[in-house]
Amino acid sequence: MSATIADVTRRIAAGEVTAEGLVDDAFARIGTIDPHLGAFLALDERGARQTARAIDKARSANEPLGPLAGVPIALKDNLVTKDLATTAGSRILEGWLPPYDAHVVEKLRAAGAIIIGKTNLDEFGMGSSTERSAFKPTKNPWDLSLVPGGSSGGSAAAVAANLCVASLGTDTGGSIRQPASFCGVVGLKPTYGRVSRWGVIAYASSLDQVGPITKTVADAAHLLQVIAGHDPRDATSLPTAVPNFAAALEAGVDGLRIGLPREYFGEGIDPGVRAALDETIEALRANGATIVDISLPHTHLALPAYYLVAPAEASSNLARYDGVRFGKRVEGVDLLDMYKRSRGAGFGPEVKRRIMLGTYALRAGYYDAYYKRAQQVRALIKRDFDEAFTRCDVIFTPVAPTPAFAFGAKANPVDMYLADVFTLSCNLAGLPGLSVPCGFTKAGLPVGAQLLGKPLDEATLLRTGAAIERWADITETPPGVATLEPKPDQGTQPS
Amino acid sequence: MAQLSRTEVEEIALLARLHLEPDETTRLETELAAILESFGALAAANVEGIAPMTHAVPVDLALRGDQVEPSLSVDDALRGAPKRAGDVFLVPAIVTGKSE
Amino acid sequence: MSLDDFEPVIGLEIHVQLATHAKAFSPSGIEFGAPPNSLTDPTVLGLPGALPVFNAAALQCALALGVATGSQIRARSRFSRKHYFYPDQPKGYQISQFDEPLCEHGHLDVLLGNTVKRVELQRIHLEEDAGKNMHVGSVSHVDLNRAGIPLVEVVTAPVITSADEAAEFMRSLHRLVRWLGISEADMERGHLRCDANVSVRRKGEDRLGTRTELKNINSFKFVQAAIEHEITRQVRIVDGGGRIERETRLWDANAGQSAPLRSKEEANDYRYFPDPDLPPLVVEGRVMAEVLRMLPELPVPRFQRYTQELGLAADDAKTLVGERALADYFDAALAAHPVKTSARTLANWILTELLGALNAAGVEIAASPMTPETVSALVVLVETGAISGKIGKEIFEESYRTGEAPKTIVERRGVTQISDEATLVPLIEQVIIANPKQVEGYRGGKESLFSFFVGQVMKATQGRANPVVTAELLKARLKG
Q: Are B63 and C274 in contact (CB < 8 Å)?
């Protein structure tokens, strides 16, 4: 499973491995490791085998294979899968079997991908550590005492621990990029509207976007190629042509103008993170990039703007969980009581907190001071980026101020919100953002660099990311998972 | 920015149809106040004349044609229902009246 | 006290179901009386992950109404979410329009008697319908077939001053939306649903009184009765020194009275905000051009054309514009007619003979077996004197029944009118010879006997004698 998408598709096409063999390996490995890692909420062994057999049959019949034929892929559990339990990490959806597939799931199936299961997340995507899952925590494959980041922590951990070849996550304020950074893998949040949200369980509709979490930048490009494109079922899906993302991957950074926003390199950044980033900046310069000092002056307003816009939209999006048509119901003395009890019992504390915050921000009399003002600030933030991109092609920043942190380290909500400080602006402005591993802290934890691009310019991010990846060369098995690997002499008992 | 009273927290919880235990209400009162407090910079921002950005990318609404596609089957429509009576969803009586 | 000391102020909010095939924001179909929950899709059910995409046909319908009411059309309007929890509202919010509606500042001209009253419209906005909640003992049943059906909400300014006027407004809107073809406007099926805001004030006062909202008045009759009742109720309270509670009242048609709908333990707070799933609704020039191209001549201008240009009686004109198909029928007959001054005659034939026959058979004007061209041809035969009016009615009856052309029937039956003297004079001679007593009586001053002679000539010609020529000849002959 340490293979990449490129490896797997090549070997399947060549007949070196069968899809069913890969599925066997994947489930064997998951069976050994995941009980201790907690990346998956549901597995679809039967469906996966069925798909694998169909692909093997097609290959032996020399039929054309899709671009992801035989590739075992995991999906964040807020992506709706037909007849496969989808919970969004919430008790309120426990046991729900959707009657339809998300657009990205349709695309994956059509490309021949093998969907092996659904990965853990902070409930409804609301969190930065996957600790807010209603079901269980997920551990960081590099150090099992640390969080994998969030909210797509299950997807990032599954890829990092080689439980699947690639995965999809969703990113509302950093939920792909930050766990990718914490787990030492690649995470791409596409331009808003690049990938359809049909079948993506909404957290904050104007910010949510699906994207790949992969082992390599090339895999991210490959997966994005499959899932991107216009979908008439999503009115915010862009009717724009999708370029060939693989084309420019090897182009290097010579001649690129790379902007360093001074607001992102101030105090509060972990020295280990800072050192890894500085080295990468030097490497970029050494390889011909022009480093440009830029300013995004409204950066300090991104956090409050985000934590008003996102909860406001969430309070609305989560109104449909009412115990009537699907999901959890707790009976009460009358309808109102049933609503309150079902929602009171179904939602976890962080979700309730954001529903309360969002409801407050949308109330008559508060709307202008909170929600509307936040959206105005959002326009200012977008304007900052427009201005900056006249002076540079790509913006380079940290993904997070720190590497992966310990469980329980951010019990205070405001502290947890601060973990997203560098990733939020990208969502508010609708830009593409890439997290690519660029080095390690002294303690051996992976550090991610964040690249932000102009709208629809994922190609330049991937090209820059591919260059960084070549220098950083992160190929080792994460040590936390290594302790769980089956040993020839002693079985698979973890510590 | 405004401080939150306990009554306000209770009003919001009712609007949001969230049952809160008393200790939850107490905790939220403190937490929400702290969160709003930390957003002080927003109130100070100069947003005069700035149009609110309601969408991440500037697109016009794409419309769908007036074509009918097959409905979900009645069983698929009701498959997730916690309670059903034949082909309808079943809910408790409405005693307190429509909540609008 | 007297009702006359008070002045009611009424504003109406009318929801009109638009005649699209698919729902407002998703592709499931619309059908009255379909089995429960058989017209759904993930969007209608509000399933996690489902998204709305707006139906272009619903926009067309709303634009037609906007243009027909002289409204200002917003080039960029917006969908907002209106939040409230109720089992018939699957998402916990209704997609509606709030601060940026599609149409504003329009008006609807209402025919009151033979005068026209202009009622200002504050706005016309798009929204989606809710499902149906059926109370069954201690539980409710929820059917979501109706959820997501496109509606427009038409909101009048508070300028209506009587229950009669309110009912007439409702009728006018009903006629207009049918006229435009944007709604089936079937009252029985709830295609038009009216809420009324009613207040009263003493005459001469400027300030509006506290208003109540009447809900569930879904027929012309109920609009009239409920508002009438509410005005009386309010006047009684105010006159007795009481205060009107601001509340929503539900009209109970069986009891003929209203009752408060809900307690106000919780203040309304719909928490509107722009729907992030739906970018701004932009009305493009070509869409507007298409709407304008398709727009028919409207009822009130047509009424004015009929009365002022064509000289029709106001009552006839009003009947004709009561339904677009009827007015179109009349216009088609007029267009086929060679003599343009015959509008009154044509209208008479259509309103009397044709509508009489259609009503007797229970047939809509649109399904009339007789074409406008045929009606015109028949009227031509009468007008040119080829047949008498009386024979015309017989020919009409046969042509209506068989579809045969009036001229062919006339020729086959040999019932052309006899106007030439050479034929009529000998017949008159015979009548006079055969009835000496009556001749004597007439000549003796009993002038009422004249019609007897006309009748005899008609009898001799099976009614084909031209009555005018016959009368002239008879008069001359009887004198001598």
A: no
Contacts of C141 in chain B (CB under 8 A): 85, 88-90
Domains of chain B: 1-46 (1.10.20.60)
Euclidean distance between CA atoms B32 and A191, whole angstroms:
31
Task: Report the alpha-carbon distance of residue C253 to residue C226 in Å, rounded.
Answer: 8
Q: Which residues of B touch C (CB under 8 A)?
A: 14-15, 17, 54-55, 58-69, 71-72, 74, 77-78, 80, 85-94, 96-100
Q: Which residue has the tokens 């969502």?
A: A427
- The residues that bridge with C81 in the sheet, in sequence order, are C95, C273
Low-confidence ranges of chain C (pLDDT < 50): 264-265
Q: Is A76 an annotated catalytic residue?
A: yes
By Cβ distance, the residue of A80, A235, A359 closest to C279 is A235
Cα A208 from Cα A315, distance rounded (Å): 15
> Looking at CA atoms only, how far is residue B49 from chain C in angstroms?
18
What distance in Å separates the CA atoms of residue C209 and residue C11, rounded to the nearest whole number?
13
Within 17-76 of B, beta carbons closer than 8 Å to A belong to 17-20, 24, 28, 31-32, 34-36, 38-43, 45, 47, 50-57, 59, 61-62, 64, 72, 76
Neighbours of chain C (3+ CB pairs under 8 A): A, B
A128 assigned to active site: no
So what's the pLDDT on residue B1? 44
Residue-range domains of chain C with CATH: 3-290 (no CATH), 297-413 (no CATH), 421-479 (1.10.10.410)
Task: Tally A–B CB contacts below 8 A.
Answer: 183
Q: Say which of A151, A167, A181, A435 is annotated catalytic.
A: A151
Q: Is A306 left (phi over 0), alpha (psi -120 to 50) or beta?
A: alpha
With CB atoms and an 8 Å threshold, state whether A312 touches C273.
yes
Residue C44 carries which DSSP code? H
Per-residue confidence (pLDDT) for residue C266, from 0 to 100: 54
Burial of A198 (0-12, 13-18, 19+ CB in 10 A): buried
**ipTM confidence:** 0.96
Closest residue in C to A100 (Cα–Cα): C42
| Domains, chain A, with CATH or none | 5-264+388-482 (3.90.1300.10)
CA distance C92 to A323: 11
Q: Which amino acid type is present at position A79?
A: L
Residue B98 is predicted with a pLDDT of 42
CA B46: distance to chain centroid?
28
SS3 A160: helix
Residue of A205, A233, A367 lying closest to C53 (CB–CB): A233
> What are the pLDDT tens digits along chain A (495 aa)?
479 999 999 999 999 999 999 999 999 999 999 999 999 999 999 999 999 999 999 999 999 999 999 999 999 999 999 999 999 999 999 989 999 999 999 999 999 999 999 999 999 999 999 999 999 999 999 999 999 999 999 999 999 999 999 999 999 999 999 999 999 999 999 999 999 999 999 999 999 999 999 999 999 999 999 999 999 999 999 999 999 999 989 999 999 999 999 999 988 899 999 999 999 999 999 999 999 999 999 999 999 999 999 999 999 999 999 999 999 999 999 999 999 999 999 999 999 999 999 999 999 889 999 999 999 999 999 999 999 999 999 999 999 999 999 999 998 888 888 888 999 999 999 999 999 999 999 999 999 999 999 999 999 999 999 999 998 877 778 999 988 887 655 444 444
Catalytic residue among A90, A133, A175, A425: A175
| C-alpha to C-alpha distance for A365 and B23, rounded to whole angstroms | 27
**Given CA atoms A40, A43, A49, A50 in this order, what sign does their dihedral have?**
negative
A173 touches chain B (CB under 8 A): no
B85 inside 8 A of chain A by CB: no
